[in-house]
Each structure stands twice: as C-alpha cells, then as structure tokens.
Amino acid sequence: MTFWLDLMFGNAIGLLSMIVIFCTIGIMSFLMWMFYTKSADPKK
Questions:
Q1: Which of 10, 12, 15, 33 can bridge 6 by disulfide, Cβ–Cβ 3.0-4.6 Å?
Q2: Residues 9-32: pLDDT tens digits?
Q3: Is the full-model pTM beyond 0.85?
C-alpha cells in the first residue's frame, strides 16, 4: 500500500496523473447529471 501511495503521490508526475483522473471523473459525472436533468420530464 505504501508503494502505491508513494507511486501516485510521491512525485509530480503521479500527482498530476491523479489530478487528471479525478478531474475526468468530475467532468463525466457533471455531464451525466446535466444529461439526466435536461432529459427529465418537464411536466413534473
């Protein structure tokens, strides 16, 4: 476990890759939420 934490957060490349992964997850969840709210039934 300490190996993976050191690999992900120990240097700048690992930290930047984790930031990219978390930003991608955030953008995809925002787009899915926006698609869900735009495609909802407007009569409710």
A1: 10
A2: 778 888 888 899 999 999 999 999
A3: no
